[in-house]
UniProtKB/TrEMBL annotation:
It comes from Salix viminalis (Common osier). One of its GO terms (cellular component) is lipid droplet. Keywords: Repeat. Gene3D superfamilies: 1.50.10.20. This is TERPENE CYCLASE/MUTASE FAMILY MEMBER. Belongs to the terpene cyclase/mutase family. One of its GO terms (molecular function) is beta-amyrin synthase activity. Residues 10-167 form the Squalene cyclase C-terminal domain.
Length: 177
């Protein structure tokens, strides 16, 4: 498109660095990442929710899905552009965000996912993110029990059959086991 319509060309590295800078601003004190802004509001604000249908909408919170996506993105940036905010990214990802997702793991090895069919989806995302920062079955208990959880739910066909009711009931329900 002509420059008079879209403006001057921006270098890819500049756009990438701006994206990284923005992502780092989303991290909450507990190491997790939220969707829109760092989670800073007190939980009691949920009592002010005027809706009867939607719970948990008044206060921004961290999400395993957002955190794991950002872990993977920042790990890749560090690999491809090691000169850009490397120390901050390593602290953010390797220590804080990784710690957040490991602590979010449930006793059965699963994680709760808010934006998908909960447990299978979240486990997949967390295991990919932990792998992106070098965590394996050999050096991470979270990876070991996360893999065990997924394998225990796998069907003979090779797929998984988690019910949509898992999200509503906050319990992992697998329909075809």
């Amino acid at each position: 498109m002509p420059a008079d319509i879209v403006g001057d060309t921006i270098e890819v590295d500049e756009q990438l660095y701006e994206a990284v800078d923005f992502l780092l601003t989303l991290q909450s004190e507990n190491g997790g990442f939220s969707a829109w802004e760092p989670a800073t509001s007190p939980q009691w604000m949920e009592m002010l929710n005027p809706t009867e249908v939607f719970g948990g909408v008044m206060v921004e919170t961290e999400y395993v899905e957002c955190t794991t996506s950002i872990i993977q993105a920042l790990a890749l940036v560090t690999h491809l552009h090691p000169e850009h905010r490397r120390k901050e990214i390593e602290t953010s990802v390797a220590k804080e965000a990784t710690h957040y997702v490991e602590n979010a793991q449930m006793a059965d090895g699963s994680w709760y996912g808010n934006w998908g069919i909960c447990y299978t989806y979240a486990a997949y995302l967390v295991l990919r993110a932990l792998a992106a920062v070098g965590k394996t079955r050999r050096n991470s208990e979270a990876v070991c029990i996360g893999c065990d959880f997924l394998l225990s739910k796998q069907l003979e066909s090779g797929g998984w059959g988690e019910s949509y009711l898992s999200c509503r009931n906050l319990v992992n329900l697998f329909t075809f086991n």
